[in-house]
Input
Amino acid sequence: MNRTHFYFFLFALFVTSCGLVAYKYFVLGFPITPEEKVNAWDIEVHISFDAQNEPVKVVLFLPGYSRNFIISSENFVSKSYGITTSTDNINRNVIWAINEASKRQVLLYRFRVNKVKVKNPPDSIPPFELEVPELLEPYRSAANTLLAEVREKSADTESFVMKLFKRLNAQPPDENVAILLDKEISADKKVELAVQLLALADIPARVVNGIRVKTRTNDAQIEKGIEVYSGGKWTSYDPNSGTASISGNYLAWWRGTKPLVQLYGGKNLKTNISVGLQEEKAINAALIRTETMNPRLLDFSLFSLPLHFQAVYHLLLLIPIGVLFLVILRNIIGLETFGTFMPVLIALSFRETHLISGIILFSILVAIGMVARLYLENFRLLMVSRLASLLIIIIICIGVFDILFYKLNLEMGLSITIFPIVILTMTIERMTITWEERGSKAALHQCIGSLIAASIVYFFMFNKYSRHLIFIYPELLLLILAITMLLGRYKGYRLFELFRFKEMNKV
Amino acid sequence: MIPKLIRQFNKLGIVGINRRNLDYISKYNPRHLYPFVDDKLLTKMLAIQAGINVPELYAVIAINHQAHDIHAILKKHSTFVIKPAHGSCGNGVLVITGHSKKGYRTLNRMIMSDEVLENYILEILSGVFSIGGHPDKALVEYRVQLDPFFKDLTYQGMPDIRIIVFLGVPILSMMRLPTHLSNGKANLHQGAIGVGIDIATGKTTNGVWFNDIITEHPDTGIEISGICIPNWQDLLNLAARCYELSGLGYQGVDIVIDREKGPMLLELNARPGLNIQIANRTGLLPRLKLVEQHYKELSCLEDRISFIQKYFSNT
Output
């Protein structure tokens, strides 16, 4: 029972950890490697007009929700205009206003979007009151005939819309369609007409305006689409094919038939939309995506901590990795080291000096410390004061080294702080005790063992992949815990034990 | 090569550190009993209560200023041993062989002044020799007299006999002989010889010195194989009784034999080493499993001793 319990627990840890990692990787798109980049799009609306020494008001629609993109940042550039943003039940807009302006005025609106598949956009807007258009003859008869014909061949809203667009898109247009379109056969006109016709058929629909975000361009064009309300939600239809889908690079901007920019008190309005491609760290995009798709996950992640706490966790989370490899080195390989976790601490102190110079410095300081310790031995001091004296001597040595290296212009990254000094002192004390108790051979053996273990642990802890992975996917700690616990039940021989019992092979 | 070694060792039933810790120490040695074996003073008290022979305790020094007053007691005994209560591997043991005008005479014929001896005791108290450097006590006790039987088997120092006792049943034993190289210490990795003993009869098999199989003492040239340890049954009895004494299921019992007082319990070990397998050229596992299977049927000491004769005889 005990064993089943144990393995069940490990399995639960494993599944939880892997499940969370998989969710974050596949669904939220958290990057596996630190260099991963994703595309973000910078879109700029450039508005210019001539002011005429009188109050000016400019209303610009701002992008609302889109199924394909989320806005990660936005800003407004204008010299001395008052800015008010507001949201009505369908659209978001900004109002620039100024009491008096003259000459050519330029207003800028910039935003950045990230591509994302939003499954359920926060589109809770109920269908508005149907505005049934008052059509005059001959439009009314043409519309009624067309709708009757379409209704005859359709089963539900979706097929109705499809059939309708098929009729509207037919080349050449049939008689009724020709009347309704009134010679103006633009795609935009078709969409507006379709909305009116659908309203006549009691189907709520609305025009959606947007741009295609596909390539860099200095002159993106507004394209109109249609959204139809059916089955409790808004569905986008492609006006060209009439199918219930919309291409993945379509950024829905605002709904309704009003123009993008409305200018009051100025003339010669010129609006230009440019799209730029920007590389962005994948993690930033993933975080933005998470905020939209699963905000609670972000609330309970390390990213919700203040930055200086995050820095602590960048280091703290690496320790389990080091400890895991130490367990392997000690219990599976059988490497002998000072203390249980001393190599991990030594590896941590190497972080500040880097590996090679760390090992050199460490060896020199331990050697000096050993000599000092053996010298202190002559005076038969009590343990605490002996340790304290050792600590003081080591600090003096480090100070001398620092000055020496500085004078010689040797850059060894000698930024030793409090932490490594204490570790050094402990190591020296441990080493001398081992030296006395088990002889010089055992002491050197363990010292080299510790250094090897520290180097290996350092290698696994302080490379950019582990740093990145463990911070982005802290749930990996559960996996590390599971592996560590599993290794805790390892009953087999340690690698070095095989050499120890080698003689037995001859029995 | 490695898989072959593993297969061979598994066949012999050699227990590695991981298996020892998991299947035996953590299972049969409750943590709260460790203080009784880690503290030699407590072990001694328990043994005296149980009527087990131990080296007589002359004095205990627990507080620094007592070290100053110790000389009056020490002067009464011509020879004695000072050791830390929490020492391990024989570290910190000081043997005084006699007195002189200038002070105490040590094993290697040096003279130790009163002050130096006091300092040595203070060092023990400060925890130099104890595991983890915790403050310690110093014990002054009877110095075991070398039995003539061992006289030629050892170079300086005191040979001892290590018996692994599992659930009250002695299962494997070896004799540890100090050498010139081990500096009189009976510690295998410091250069002492480990000599396997047939647990049923007390007859020695081969010796292991570092990694070599030997049949004679490297310093004295005396044959060490095939000799019979005197009073072997007494030793087995003593070892077996240590189970009730400490309560530890898996322990190493260290016994010395005194010229006059016979077998004495020196110390108990809650984490006995695995080198004993090399000295005996056999693995622990088959014997551990046999005892695990049968120990419930073994109600008294006699049962356990006869169990050894029945199952563990080499011949």
Q: What stands out?
A: The beta strands of chain A are 37-62, 69-77, 82-87, 92-115, 205-212, 223-230, 233-237, 250-255, 261-264, 266-281.
